[in-house]
Amino acid sequence: MRHIPKPILIFSIYRADESKETNEVAHYAAMSVLEGAKAEFIELEGSYLNQREKSFLVQDWELRGLIETLCRAYKQESYIESHGDRFTTLCYLNGHRENIGYLVNVSEQEAKASGSWSYNPNSGYFITKKNREGVA
Known about the structure:
25% helix
């Protein structure tokens, strides 16, 4: 991932228990909300626990409330926040926070072997790791 020197939020609207069509409709509805809020975001491809999904990388922590509202509306349990140094936390909507390491650039093969990854067409594959080697 091309380094974005500011904090970012990453979330998905996709649900494993919904059809691809339902997930696509929900994703584009959420995208319309982000566009309406004039959010600076990047649409990502990826996988969560080996389930393909699209997600959003939002480049404005001031929109955390909007992201939490969207996550609640689409029955998500969490989103990711990553600081400028790419230290990353899984933020549950119930207030619990879990440190999950650092966002790091990896090869396509390593990303897909991990089961949970994101892909930005402009900058490549990234996953979370406990160490900083390859920080995105």
